[in-house]
Amino acid sequence: MNIASFMFYFFEFAAASSAFALIFIRNVFYGALLLIICLLALAGIYVLAFAEFIAVAQILVYAGGILVVIIFGIMLTTKISGKPLVVEHMYELSGTLAGLSLLALLIYVISRETSFAERAVYQQQYDSVNRIGIDLMSEFVMPFEIGGILLLIALIGAAVTASTIKSK
Amino acid sequence: MFPIAHFLYLGAFLFSAGLVIVIVKKNMIMVLLGIELMLNASNLNLVTFNQLYPDSIQGQMFALFVIIVAVSEAAVGLAIVIKVYHYYQTSVPDEINELKD
Amino acid sequence: MAATPSYDTAVFMACAFSALFLPLFSFAVSLLISEKYSWLVTFTSPFLLLLSTLAAGVVLYSTWNQQPFTMTWNWFTVAGSTFAVGVFLNNISALMLLVVTLISFLVNSYSAGYMAGDPDLKRYFGMLGFFTFSMLGIVIADNLLLVFVFWELVGFSSFMLIGHWKEKSKAADAAKRAFIFNRVGDVGFLIGLMILWAHAESFNLITLSTSSEALSWKTAASLCIFCGVIGKSAQFPLFSWLPDAMEGPTPVSALIHAATMVAAGVFLLARVYFLFTPFALDFVALTGCITALLGAFAALAQNDIKKILAYSTISQLGFMVLAAGAGAPEAAMLHLVTHAFFKACLFLAAGAVIHALHQAQNQSHFPFDAQDIRHLGGLRKKLPFTFFVFIVSGSALSGLPFFSGFLSKDAILASLMVWKGTGFSWRWLIFGSAFVVSFTTVLYTFRLIWSVFQGEEKSTAHLSITEPPLSMRVPMTVLAIASLWIIVSPNPFDFSGWIYGGLRSNSEYLHISAISIASASWVLLALAFAYLIKGRTIRSSMLLNAFYVNSIYKIVVERPLFQLAEITARTDKKLIDGILHTAAYAQLIIANVAGWFDRAMIDGVVDDAAILAKGVGSFTRSFQGGKIQLYIFWAIFAVIIFIIWTLL
Amino acid sequence: MTTLLFILPFLLIYTIVAIYAERKISAFIQDRLGPMEVGYYGFAQSIADLLKLIQKEDIVPAKADAPLFRVAPIIIFTTVFAGFAVLPLAPSWTGAQIDTALFFLIAIVSLDVVGIVIAGWSSNNKYSMLGTMRSAGQIISYEVPLGLSVLCVCMACQSLDLQEISYQQSIFQKTPQYLFGIPSLGIETGSTGGFLLWNIFRMPALLFAWVIFFVASLAECNRAPFDLPEAESELVAGFQTEYSGFRWAVIMLAEYGMMLLVSILGAVLFFGSWSTPLPNIASLPLAKWTSGEPGTLASTVWGIFWLLGKALFFVAMQMWVRWTFPRLRVDQLMNLSWKYLTPMALVLVVVIGFWKLIFS
Q1: Which of chain D's termini has less CB crowding within 10 Å, N or C?
Q2: pLDDT band for position B99 (cuts 50, 70, 90)
């Protein structure tokens, strides 16, 4: 087992276990931290899948951006001191049932396709960052711009929604 | 190197876990976390499937846009959660059922 | 259309239709004019009627002794039978057209003075126009159905005019009475029309006249039509509405008696003369004779100026009908024309007297019945013009020589002379009674003149009475001139003038000098007798009440009718109401049963459906619990099911 | 991996030195002597403090979230330290060779806030919480102008690879270079080397980008005048109020490490990285003399020397700024970021884009 394989299985294990723990965790803050672990692990997996740009974007946007926002949300919607933040569970049976059946189904489908097991990831011939940059400005310029507009709208919308200033 | 199936198994597991979280958790922020998890699972799949097409970068591109959308979703969702919390003093979605009756 | 080249068809038609429709236009103008300018109708209506008269004159001039003018349009089609509207102008109708329009024009202009200050001028003049229009319709219509329509319109407009002063209960009653009596006659007319239609399949006068030889049921049809004539022309026994109709304004009476209403009957008689069988003619003659006698004697005993004139009209109408029944419709028409002028003149003169007295009464506040001759007398000095007119028209009525009445009566007597034959029969009686009527006519006419104008002044002694205004005097003058012999014939003792010549259809009845001489001497004898009695009143309640015809009606018609009504009412109450009540109870029971069924069964089903819907709703609502996560669960559940489905 | 072996000890020494320098510089600015007792001119003062800190009791507040409280400093330090992994130290000595090194650095810098949040939140202390909130808001806000100013460099060099950027600014690059990036000026600088090849000379607009970068990096490091998260006069010590002993030392280490990190980054991006500032002047090839050949030990030594020299200069500059400017209010802080720096950075991006389009 070379170091890359070790890293891969370590990241897989980290992602899977943190996601699994996330199901049972009752503390929202811990949940957010577990999600960070999971996302960072995923970033590592992306690197190992030769998608460095996505990996860094994952860290920058998810781990650095969204999670901070989520933590903000946690702080704003829970009491700082006093009782610990405990999240109740409900529909445990339905949720478990749905999750397990979906998992079983997906595993069945994936295992049925033998080419997945034989095919290994490999490094592409092209420089992926370069390729992404060029594609974003040529082939995908339209979705890229729409994404930009979407982000702007979300930014303004979130700011207005969360603002406590009373609209007249 | 590592077979693609392993990525896909991880993605499936993450997605299922996210689904369970979405259904089971009583706190809206936890639900949001679950949704993020599901989005990431799909992202993982997209990146993985990009490997199946050597000359294409569309999978990664798609993952990039998913991230963009996830950012928007998280920002707006959290804004709503905060607003709802200020208004109802709760972040449990089941308690906000004024439309029910 | 058989138009002769002697006149321009277009001009002729324009004249004919303007003569017909100008009165209708007058009616429309009178109704549409604003209340504020209602005084205008006293100018517009006479003017329009004048135009109508001129048009009628042109028509008469054009058609006189020419080919009859006909024109027909299809009106409507029912069950394959086409009904037409048409115009049929021959000598009789052209002459009648002129007479009617002329008298209507004169009455209109007279009314302008007589009715001045009336609050309902619009309605009055409107109905005068409509009345004239209806009569003209009868005159020029070419088929009996159209005639019937206008016949009814005449009845309606006479009802409106007699009851013009509707606030007077007597006037309203009289109007109703006239209307009902007319309806009784019209029933006969209508039945006659049905019989005709059943057998001839046509109402067209020309068609009927050519095919009348082969017609079956002719007697019945003609007698039924004669029923209409009896009603309209106030023949025995349906005459008593006419004296009552005196409640209307005097110009209206003039119009009714002279040209429009009662003339319609005689005109119709002349128009459909070809339908009458000998038996029917005998019946007609008998009816006319009885009516003439009855009217003449009733007139002797009356005290009201207008009632005397009314009974005199009945008597003269009887004379006309008698003439027609005696087979001389042309004589009847001749008398109708002359009578129209002098009777209109008499009524207008009487109206002038009444008008003058009312004027005087209004100034002096001295109440008395201005129409009662017992209060009057000696007005000769105060109303010399009216007196003169009265004398002229009264002489014409009496049949004095040099007046038109003498000549037309002569024509009737001559025809009767021929009709009675040589052998002695019941017709001699009728011939005799004609002379009796003639004698009586002189008596009551001069009794009236005497009572009103001669002798001492009674109630009017202290009143300052003035002659009527010019608008009333001019029509009176015109009519007085028209009462002279000259309009009938240049020879004052020979009735065979232009009118008679134009009307005559056969040459059977000619002037008989012996009759003229006898008639003249007989009338002069009567005049002498009248001078002798000097207006003495015959106090006979039988005569006053016209032989109790009304009372007989009461006993014979009214009482049984009321009894019948009571019986039917009782039947209605007991039997029909009983049936109805039973039906209602049955319905109630059915309704209750149905109601129970509705509540229990139908409502039950509906309620159950509602409960079911509610159940389904609450069941499905349980899914819509506002719980987002459950939604997600169900959605995922469905997706999983779907994926499994596609995989398998 | 070799970078790690070099950086970790260097970081410890640097921190001790930096703390001493901070004290001395502040004393110099405030016209006083500073630490004088321990050692010559008090140079051992920091070592003494360090010893004292290590000896201190590791206190975990009773109401705190113990595991998170304990792990938070480590997270903070780890994130900062991870940033050093991709830095090029010399022409032939790169850290992790990844194409997106610049991007990665930005990501790592922003990840720092997670540790701070954990530290503040787990302390279960109002001051900590307030400091945390300020810190998080500040770091996220200043990430935008920081990222945009870095994007300027990225556009100018057309690369995210730090070593590539460094090479472009050195005399080892192969393509012809012109002063201010304007070939029409006719001043060829490729063979001259030295400071003329630095990014701010290759693309003058980058000088303004560097100003923005410097201000934003101050905020990222929570340095004065943007030290609101730990404003001692308001919040005691911000998110690190409850920390003591070794854990507090680690936080301080991370903080000084962060200063060094952004300084190195600034040097790499704008001031020639490891390349010498001395140009070849006619027959005097100063640049050659002070660079060495790539791959040789000389070049590595020269590279480390120049890079760290520049970086330490910027660290000193940060200290100078700290003791010169008063602290900003929160609203002023946000205004500066969103209303001045961000629009300016955006304008710079456009300017550089057009500059490149017009003059190349």
Answers
A1: N
A2: low
Task: Give the residue numbers spanning the domain of B70.
Answer: 4-89
Task: Using a CB–CB cutoff of 8 Å, tell me whether A61 touches chain B.
Answer: yes
Contacts of C633 in chain A (CB under 8 A): 91, 94-95, 98
Q: CATH number of the domain that B24 lies in?
A: 1.10.287.3510
Dist. CA D28–CA D303, nearest whole Å: 30
B78 in contact with C at a CB cutoff of 8 Å?
no
**CB of A21 within 8 Å of any CB in chain D?**
no
Taking CA–CA distances from C636, the nearest residue in chain A reads A98
Residue A140 phi, psi (nearest 5): -105, 25
Give the residue among C409, C408, C428, C426 at the shortest CA–CA distance from C418: C428
**Stretch D271-290: mean pLDDT:** 76
Q: Is residue B20 a part of any domain in this protein?
A: yes
* Most distant pair of Cα atoms in chain C: their distance: 139
3-state helix, strand, coil in chain A (%, to 5): 75, 0, 25
> Under a CB-based contact definition with an 8 Å cutoff, are residues C242 and C313 in contact?
yes
Comparing C-alpha atoms, which of C346, C375, C341 is closest to residue C465? C375
Sequence-separated (6 or more) residues with CB below 8 Å from residue D284 = none
Below-50 pLDDT ranges, chain C: 1-5
Instruction: Please tell me the total number of residues recorded for chain B in this structure.
Output: 101
Asked whether the beta carbons of D293 and D299 are under 8 A apart, the reply is: yes
Q: How far is CA C494 from CA C407, C414, C527, in A?
A: 7, 11, 21
Q: Set out the domains of chain A in order of their start, with CATH numbers.
A: 3-89+128-164 (1.20.120.1200)
Q: How many C-beta atoms surround the C-beta of residue D77 within 10 A? A: 23
CB C329 within 8 A of CB C323: yes
Name the average pLDDT for chain D: 81
Q: What is the pLDDT of residues D140-193, one digit of tens each?
A: 888 888 888 888 888 888 888 888 888 888 777 777 777 777 777 777 777 777
Nearest one of C372, C549, C537 to C447, comparing CA atoms:
C537
* Domains: count for chain D: 1
In a domain, B38, yes or no: yes
ipTM of the complex: 0.69
> pTM of the entire structure?
0.51
**Is residue A41 within 8 angstroms of chain B, CB to CB?**
no
CA dist C396 and D196 (Å) reads 151
Q: What is the pLDDT, as a whole number, of residue A76? A: 67
Closest CA to B34 of B18, B13, B17: B18
Identify from A3, A53, A59, A136 which residue to disrupt to test chain D contact, counting D C-beta atoms within 10 A and taking the largest count: A59
Instruction: List C-alpha distances in Å: D326 to A83, A131, D226, D315, D342.
Output: 39, 46, 9, 18, 22
